[in-house]
Amino acid sequence: MRVFGATARLGLLLGAGLSLLVAYPAFAQEGPFSLVTSPLPILVSTKPGQPVSTELRVRNAGTETERLRADLFKFSVNDQSEVKLEEKQPGDDFMNWVSFAPVVFNAAPNEWRTIKMTINVPSSASFGYYYAVGFSRADAPTPQPGGAALEGQVITFVLLDVVVPGAKRELQVSGFSSDRSVYEFLPTILSVKVKNSGNVHLSPTGSIFIKRGQKTVATLSINPNQGNVLPNSTRTFKAEWSEGFPVYVPKTQDGKPFNNPDGTTAKQLKWDFSKVPDLRVGKYTAKLVLVYDNGQRDVPIEGTLSFWVIPWRLLFGLLLIVGLAGLGLWSITRNFWRRFGRRGRAGK
Amino acid sequence: MTKTITWQKRFSRKVSLLAAIAILLINASYLILVQTAYAADFTNAYLRLDRLQASTTTGGTVCAKPATAGTEVDVQVTFPSGFTVNATASNWTVTTTNLPAGATAWVGIGTATAVSSQTVTFASGDVVVGTLYCFNFSGTTTLTTSTAAADKTGVITTRATGPATIDTSEYATAIIADDQIDVTATVAPSFSFTLSGTSDALGTLSQTAVTSSPTPRTITVATNGPNGFITWIKDSNAGLTSPIVSDTINTSGTVDNACSGAYSAGSEFYGLDAQEGADPQTNGDIDPEYLCTATTVGAYSTTFTELATGTAATSGYVVTLNNRAAAGNLNKPATDYADTVTVSGAGNF
User: Fold this and answer.
1) What percent of chain B has pLDDT over 70?
2) What is the distance, to the nearest Å, from the Cα of residue A232 to the centroid of all Cα atoms in its chain?
3) In this complex, which of A149, A238, A257 lies closest to B340 when CB atoms are compared?
């Protein structure tokens, strides 16, 4: 018994001593939170009944080891083209298909971690499903009495296309407009509203041809980076035509953008005299040609609008100069003829 | 006996005279006869071709360090056999920019004055012994390399008026099948999100004035994703809640794309005023719900609400988060009013 008791005490001592020697990583629970994710977004495609996996990578850009967790959300786009991030709601069975490995993990400073996302797509699945994977600290922030606790979270969008026959891939241009109908100087902001009336996300691309008469003076790209339009949603793509003289550019102060009191970006005229040939005057036509893949072929969509560029201050100034010059010429000529007339009469 | 001595003396004198004349003539011949000058090698000379690939048009750089004093008037470069040398001298223009380290621009170098077979003659100025001079010749309609082979030799020669060779050296080069390495790389799209701090202690709230975050936290977003970014904000309680006294300072207003009404003393007041801290690419915007003032705020919601968006890549879009609060006349006293705010961000799809 004495030997057993001594052995037990010795074991306890050894255990306590070992626990002091083992290094436990210190996790950042408070303080700055900084993560980097890649790639973005993630587009995956599969058939009903076929699981699909993808890898999400996250890097701890902070200075302390982070204990992170992966959470699943869904996203959609509302009528105002705002991306709505939402938690799982009753009936969102498609969110039950998803699993992560690992769910909770450590990331040392500057360490990249790869998390495998597996979607076990049932045979009844079809068309598009839109997930948002959130990475945040595994432990909830400690509530701050007398204040607010802040929690940071980085989201990666995952767009799943379950390919089935009969998928409706259809886009419509619901609006093609310019921010004004008459400009004094460029830039012109052209907006293309694209509505997805199908049931699968699509990525349209295209060009806008700016013409003056029959001559094309500029070609702008629409959605060159292949952004996606979700089903039953509208997305607005913008293109800016700024090749003009002079042209409004964002105003800067000490090299930094300068804002108006209302928060909008202040602008100023830029006079680059090497761009004098780009002086825009008159009526211009913008012709849109947008193309998307309907699963069988490329489908083009077209649109047209017109706008005017009237640099009235420049024209007024030019008119004033011409007017003054004309007045001066007329005055000189009149004086000359008066003198000539007097001499002629005197000679007679 | 007298005649013999006299004859010997005369013969000896004649021989001596003839010998002296011969010596004089021999010495004078060095002045009279044309002397053959044997040119020295350059201390250092090389030809560096821009391309070593077979049958490829190329320009190059000629370098040489003179070893012999002289007044140079031209420099000739003889290209190896098998090279195609364009016969139009005016094509062989020269420059003296971006020369090898330690080299001096070739004095008086000019466009070629003559091309004969493999040899191109360039006008030159007087160069100094011991200095490395270089010049570049154009690769436009001038030279085409031969088929692939090693030990392709040529000659570089400087000449004085005459022409007279001053220095000359052989150089060697090799022509290979392919002189280029295809380098490929991928830059993956990435999204960076930083929250400057996770606590915002408002302290004791006043019933007559708005209390703002003493140290407003910031979020910084950076992405090379061409479609920009989105950030959202979500609140756990839609207000500052005290579990002890079961009371909440409710968020002001509703999420309606506009700031709340202005604060009035005695009313409970709580919400977020977000301001742009930096927008280096001028492509970000704060949602109108949260772009407020010192006395108006955006409403918190228990669902994610759009906070700020960007239309393209950004090197560091910063949003400053100002929580603003005031206790109402009827809010119960407690020290544990608290809230948890989640700020999320993503690269757009």
Assistant:
1) 93
2) 20
3) A149
- Rounded CA-CA distance B10/B275 in Å is 125
pLDDT at A245 over 50: yes
Which residues on chain B are in Cβ contact (under 8 Å) with A30? 198-199
Write down the pTM of the prediction: 0.73
Identify the H or E element spanning B23.
helix B2-32
In A95-114, the residues whose Cβ lies within 8 Å of chain B are none
Alpha-carbon dihedral sign for residues B6, B11, B17, B23: negative
Neighbours of A43 (CB within 10 A): 16
Of A38, A41, A259, the CB nearest to B188: A38
Rounded CA separation B163/B243 (Å)? 104
- Tokens linked to A35: 């993560």
Q: How confident is the model at residue B314 (pLDDT cuts 50, 70, 90)?
A: very high
Band of pLDDT at residue A15, cut at 50, 70 and 90: very low
Could you say which of A154, A225, A228 has the minimum Cβ distance to residue B345? A154
With H, G, I as helix, E, B as strand and everything else as coil, classify residue A93. Answer: helix
Residues 6+ apart with CB under 8 A from B111: B89, B90, B92, B93, B94, B122, B123
| Per-residue confidence (pLDDT) for residue B21, from 0 to 100 | 76
Tokens of B224: 């090379």
Size of interface A-B (CB pairs under 8 A): 174
For the purposes of burial, counting CB atoms within 10 Å of the CB of A79, is it exposed (0-12), middle (13-18) or buried (19 or more)? exposed
Half-sphere exposure of A287 (CA within 13 A, CB side): 11
The answer to whether residues A265 and B285 touch, using CB atoms and an 8 Å cutoff, is no
| Contact of A147 with B212, CB cutoff 8 Å | no
- Separation of alpha carbons A35 and A109, rounded Å: 10
pLDDT digits (tens, 9 = 90+) for B228-271: 999 999 999 889 999 999 999 999 999 999 999 999 999 999 99
Tokens 């998803």 correspond to what residue? A98
Identity of residue A54: T
Most distant CA atoms of chain B, gap in Å: 166
